[in-house]
Amino acid sequence: EAGVVQSPRYKIIEKKQPVAFWCNPISGHNTLYWYRQNLGQGPELLIRYENEEAVDDSQLPKDRFSAERLKGVDSTLKIQPAELGDSAVYLCASSSGTDVGGYTFGSGTRLTVV
Amino acid sequence: AQSVAQPEDQVNVAEGNPLTVKCTYSVSGNPYLFWYVQYPNRGLQFLLKYITGDNLVKGSYGFEAEFNKSQTSFHLKKPSALVSDSALYFCAVRVGTGGFKTIFGAGTRLFVKA
């Protein structure tokens, strides 16, 4: 079974440019999470989806960040325009909504804004 | 405020010796507690969880963790460390009425010396 797949693995962009990250969760996992992990810190939740509905986006900087999960499967996280402080690893995770087990994380996208 | 604390930035142990990585939490209600491990350039991998029941839970790769309600702790342990255990370890707690918001600690880097 494929795990959570994220792309790209690495992205370097200039500030003020747009960038997008893609995530394909584990088949059948209806809950999808986007986390941001700054260097030397633990992941911080940006947004959580239950199927196609964003049920917790309280930590998402909505002035520049947006996300979508059309059809309740794949998800895209976008930043426009990017700022230097957005440099981080963006992690996608998924889980089955019916259990209280651990999440399955993707390998992440390392974003560098220059 | 609900939080997770990992008081040690780094833990150093010799191979073959027992290891402990500390975690304390502050949440209202009964906590769901987790440990994850992160290897370089990889996403987080689920190690083990405490939901209810026996205070000592066993997980992947020979790791175990002890839940102590009176001390609000959930320390990760292993009887005999391996060099390959060297990685970044995150403690996490799941909170909220829906039970699906996970807060991560800042992480502890474990270094096992041969």
Any idea what the shape of chain A is? globular
Distance between the termini of chain B: 40 Å
How many distinct beta strands of chain A? Answer: 11
Largest sheet of chain A: 7 strands, mixed
State the low-pLDDT regions of chain A, or none: none
Mean pLDDT of chain B: 92
Mean pLDDT of chain A: 92
SSE series of chain B: EEEEEEEEEEEE
Low-confidence stretches of chain B: none
Please state the overall shape of chain B, judged from the principal axes of the Cα atoms.
globular
Structural class of chain A: mainly beta
| Percentage of residues in helical conformation of chain B | under 10%
Largest interface: A-B, 27 and 26 residues
Number of E strands of chain B: 12
N- to C-terminal distance of chain A = 37 Å
User: How big is the Rg of chain B?
Assistant: 14 Å
Biggest sheet overview of chain B: 6 strands, mixed
Structural class by SSE content of chain B = mainly beta
Topology of helices and strands:
The complex is a heterodimer of chains A (114) and B (114).
Chain A: E1 5-7, E2 10-13, E3 19-24, E4 31-37, E5 44-50, E6 53-56, E7 65-68, E8 75-79, E9 88-95, E10 104-105, E11 109-113
Parallel strand pairs in A: 2-11
Antiparallel strand pairs in A: 1-3, 3-8, 4-5, 4-9, 5-6, 7-8, 9-10, 9-11
Chain B: E1 3-5, E2 10-14, E3 19-21, E4 24-26, E5 32-38, E6 44-50, E7 56-58, E8 64-68, E9 73-78, E10 87-95, E11 101-104, E12 108-113
Parallel strand pairs in B: 2-12
Antiparallel strand pairs in B: 1-4, 3-9, 5-6, 5-10, 7-8, 8-9, 10-11, 10-12
